[in-house]
Structure formats: C-alpha cells, structure tokens
Amino acid sequence: xxxxxxxxxxxxxxxxxxxxxxxxxxxxxxxxxxxxxxxxxxxxxxxxxxxxxxxxxxxxxxxxxxxxxxxxxxxxxxxxxxxxxxxxxxxxxxxxxxxxxxxx
Length: 104
Fold this sequence. Notes:
The chain is α+β, with helices and mostly antiparallel strands. Helices cover about 25% and strands about 30% of the residues. It contains 3 helices and 6 strands, in the order ααβββββαβ. It has a 6-stranded mixed beta sheet with strand order 5-4-3-2-1-6. Strand 1 and strand 2 (about 50-55) form a beta hairpin. The longest helix is centred in the N-terminal third of the chain and has 11 residues, at about 1-10. The two termini are about 20 Å apart.
C-alpha cells in the first residue's frame, strides 16, 4: 500500500490538494472551465480520495477507493490515477496554488 501511495503522489503532485474541505475545493474550482478537477483527501473515509470536479457549472465530488491493485472509481478499477483521469471526462487540472515548476 505504501508503494501505491508513492505512485499516487508522483502522478498527482500538481493536482493533489491534500486535506482541504468541501468548501475550499469549491472555492478553488470556482471560475474554472467545465470538467476541471482536483484531487484531495477524503475527509470522511480512510483509504479513499475525493475527486472534486465541475459539471454543468456545479462542483461535484466522487470518492475513490485506493486499493493495492489500483483505484476504484464509478465501479471500475484503474491501475493508475493517470489511467482513471484519462478514461474519464475530466480534462482541466486545477493546479494546487503552491505548486511550483518542480512539481511535475
């Protein structure tokens, strides 16, 4: 599981926002393009992350289970978070406000 967390952090360093509230996620996505998203810790569920995204001008959220074999999102299992994002309709990354050029 530690390997999966290291992989997750290396893949998501620019759009992983850590432990922020629903309200803060909404603030960060406000004014962004449709299908913009950010990834954050799930405040309620251990072993899960939350993908907050804009759909029809509103911020929606999906909890995603982090498993040893991958990420479970909307009933499907993806090996990497990059694969999950690539197969979804999410396109525009909401970059963490303190992300620098080193965070690629």
